[in-house]
Structures are given as C-alpha cells and as structure tokens.
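Let us practice reading a record.
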Amino acid sequence: MQEEYREIHADSAVPADVEATPEAVRAVKKKLRSCSNRNSLAIFLFLVFGNVFTIILSMLIGFAAGLLGYVDTERMMTLANLAAALGLYVIGVPLVVLIRNLGKGHHRTKDYFARPQVSGGFICKWTVIGVGVAYLINYVCSFIWWLISLTGFEMHVPEMTSENSPLGIAVTMLMMAVLAPIFEELLCRGSLLFHTRAYGEWFAVITVGLMFGLLHANYQQIFFAAGLGIICGFVTVKAKSIWPAICIHFVLNLIGALQTVLLSASGLMEMEALDVEVEMTDWLAQVQIIPLLLVYLLAFLCLVFAIVALVLLVLEIVRHRDRLHLKNPCPILSTRQKFVTYFTAPGTICVVILLLVWTVVNMLGIFQ
C-alpha cells in the first residue's frame, strides 16, 4: 500500500541502490531541477489566478454597482473579496493542481484526501503543536519587528479587519477558516509535497514549507506560515493524507478569523486609524468592550497554545525522536546538494525573487 501510494504521488527519482556515479548524480539533479521548476510554475499560476480574479471581479462588481447606483463601497469590497476567493480557490487551485499533475500517470486528486493512517490522538497532539509553534514563531518575529520600529523604520501593517455585518463576518469566516485551509493544503501538501518527496521526505517537507511561507508575501506571516507549513508537511507524510494538515490549518485560521471579526466589532482599529490622543474615558466610550475582551481572551489562549506546544515538541524530540524519522528514498544526493539544486532552478529563482520583491512592496505599503 505504501509503495503504491508513493508511485501515485511522487515524481520518480532513482532507486536507493544506484551507485553515485557523476552521471547518476547529474541525472538526479536534472530531475530534481525539473521538479523544482514545475512546483514554482504552479506557485506562479496560483499568484496569477489570485490577482486576475481579484482585479477582474472587483472591476465587474464596481461596474455593476455603478449601473445600479449602489454606493456602499464597503459592501462592494466584501462581495469582490468573496468572488475573488471563490474564483481562486474553487476554480484556480484545482486547475493549478491539474496542470502540475499533467504527465504523471495515475495521479488522482482524491488520493490526497485518503483516510489518515494515524490515530486521532496523533492528529490532536500535532494540531496543538502546529498552531502553538506558529504563534511562538509569530511572537518572536513580532518582537523583532518592534525592535526595528524603534529605529524609526516604518513597516506597513497589513489590514486585518472585515465589514462589521453578518455578510462581512460570514465572508471572513468562509475565506479564512474554510476555503484557505482546504485548497491551500490541496496545492501545497497535496500536489507540491508529494511530487517532491521522492527526493527525501524531510527535504520535501522543509522545501514546500519554506515556499508556502514565501507564498504569503507578507512580512508578518512569512516565518510563522513557513513553520506551519513544515509541521503540516510532516503530519501529511506520516498520515498519508492531507486531512490532518487541513485540520491544523483550519484551527489556526479560525483563530485568526475570530480575531479579525472581533477586532472589527470592537472599533479599536478605527480608533487607531484616527491617530489622535484621546482620554481613557473617551476611549472606553468609543470601543465595544465585550468584543475587545474576547480579543484579549483569544490572545491569552494563543499564548497558552504556544507554551503547551513548546513543551509537547520538546518531549517529542527528547523522548520519541524515532517518530520524527522520515524516509530518504534519494540518498544519491546529499542534503546540501538537494537544496542547492532545488533553489537554483531557473523557474524557482524567478518565483522566489518575485515573492521577496512583493513582500518588500507590501511591507513598504507602496500600493496601499
């Protein structure tokens, strides 16, 4: 069953018993470079579809609103975001996965959604670890960003609010907690990971995780998204299914969606946007206390998640190191050779540069 699974999902590298002659090494590097280019093409297409759907649907909704005399711009933006998300995730991602899987034989998308070959306890434990480690990384990075801000360098903070209405709340929850976990895992842990794992399972987990972080093109999310991606990749390889990764991603995004909705309901972001000094009594009169208290409660729970996750991860490393072992079906290349070969593929170089530039542009708020 496991070998059948490997044949279905992974690109072909070389048998483990092949002698590491210069010719064999060059052949494997060529295949790995091709795999890297195809993965990066899939990521590029994901970015293209995302921007195309956003631009076209925003224009169409704006045009329709103009014809109908509809002037609620916030509602229009909510509808445009919903339409773009549905287009990207429901149409774009399956199309990208289909393109990535072309020419690979018996590749079936439904195989990614196989029944997990791990226990419920394993999934629960690694969900706590995944979410907690993501927040732990976020805390460390936030401290670094704060130190940088003390130098006077201004970094644009991405907007984390939604329309404070039933429609806005529903759209935020749908986009962040449902569509993103399912379809991003389908692309990254479903297609990209399993095409890369023939060159080493830990290598594939780390490589795809790093690219998943870069894919966010947001300096506040890159590092914790990469950490999340690595843990989701490890769990996917162990479970032989993307369902546990979807579960981890869902919990993290659900917390984020709740924080976004509650922040919008509290009115805190609007107060900060005014950028004026106000008395505490005036501040309390203008914010919604209950949503704000719930935001702080969620923040406290995230801190608890991070502490528990750190303890569980340390215990896993110290007491159950053997459980972290993954297979290396391509020992002909060293770990260094694999990473150098993968990230020096022409297509991957271009996509990485594009994502880094995009991240810097977003950080500086050039188009905001």
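A brief commentary: The CA atoms of residues 34 and 75 lie 44 Å apart.
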